[in-house]
From TrEMBL:
Residues 15-258 form the NADP-dependent oxidoreductase domain. It comes from the Bacteria. This is Aldo/keto reductase subgroup. The keyword Transport does not apply. Keywords: NADP, Oxidoreductase. GO terms for molecular function: oxidoreductase activity, acting on the CH-OH group of donors, NAD or NADP as acceptor. The active site is at Y49 (proton donor). The keyword Oxidoreductase applies. The record marks K74 as: Lowers pKa of active site Tyr. Gene3D superfamilies: NADP-dependent oxidoreductase domain. Belongs to the aldo/keto reductase family. Substrate binds at H107.
Length: 283
């Protein structure tokens, strides 16, 4: 598996298996085991996904040594504070059945982000977390966090897909040494993406699927990519992207698909912020 290096020297597999919306415990465990069997070594979960226990069981039963896996989890809004991170991290660690986490992220840019970050810096100093970062942060928020604290975030996990390409934001993050990671690279199928004429045509050139074209497009930008599937054949397909390269013409064609806005919701929407604040999950 190809890796990329974070700003603290830690290497992360460029392709990760996402577990969002896989809430059934049996399905979640089986899916992660299948993903690891297919070749994934980077597993992404979160407190709010309500599947950390299942992910932990899958890791334990995968037959792959712990040190060969890169495991990410995220702190939900209700736990974003100094004490909240300290307490909820221990709960996540217990649910996952692990001694350490490879990557810990603040899931949303709300609540006491700066108190939470200080706790995460301490967890990293103690060796309980190898890398720390954020998710869904606008570039200015990420830079603010980096500028006024000891540790520059190693990662910002954001929505990146052909309809929301975030070109300037990606450039700005990289300029600060913050690795971009793409969630929803396939836009969860929105806008009939898997039948998009541009992407289908590019795929035919290389005998690749639309998903493979999108994944390759991101990998060539040195962006870490999270993909989710519960089907083993799709998992294997999503990993099979290292035997072809896109041309400048291909990339120019993909650039024409950019709508320049989220395919889901805006993190600056006051109603969305209030909704997340009210979403108490007891995690």
């Amino acid at each position: 598996m190809q890796t990329v290096k974070l700003n603290n020297g830690v290497e992360i597999p460029v392709l990760g298996f996402g577990t969002f919306q896989i809430t059934d415990p049996i399905e979640a465990e089986q899916s992660v085991i299948a993903a690891i069997k297919a070749g994934y070594r980077h597993i992404d979960t979160a407190q709010s996904y309500m599947n950390e226990e299942a992910v932990g069981r899958a890791i334990a039963n995968s037959g792959v040594p712990r040190e060969e896996l890169f495991v990410t989890t995220k702190v939900w809004v209700e736990n974003v504070s100094y004490e909240g991170v300290k307490a909820s991290f221990e709960r996540s660690l217990k649910r996952l059945g692990l001694d350490y986490i490879d990557m810990l992220l603040i899931h949303q840019p709300f609540s006491d982000v700066y108190g939470a970050w200080r706790a995460m810096e301490e967890l990293q100093e103690q060796g309980k977390v190898r890398a720390i970062g954020v998710s869904n942060f606008a570039v200015d928020r990420a830079v603010d966090l980096a500028t006024f604290n000891k540790v520059v975030p190693q990662m910002n996990q954001i929505e990146i897909n052909p309809f929301n390409q975030q070109v300037k934001n990606i450039e700005a993050l990289k300029a600060e040494g913050i690795m971009p990671e793409a969630w929803a690279p396939f836009a969860e199928g929105k806008n009939d993406i898997f039948n998009n004429e541009v992407l289908v045509a590019i795929g035919k050139k290389y005998n690749k699927s639309v998903a493979q074209v999108i994944t390759r497009w991101l990998v060539e930008q040195d962006i870490v990519v999270l993909a989710k599937s519960t089907k083993p054949e799709r998992m294997a397909e999503n990993l099979d992207v290292f035997d072809f390269a896109l041309t400048d013409e291909d990339k120019a064609q993909i650039a024409t698909l950019n709508e320049g806005e989220s395919q889901f919701f805006s993190h600056s929407d006051p109603n969305m912020i209030k909704w997340m604040a009210e979403r108490k999950m007891g995690v």
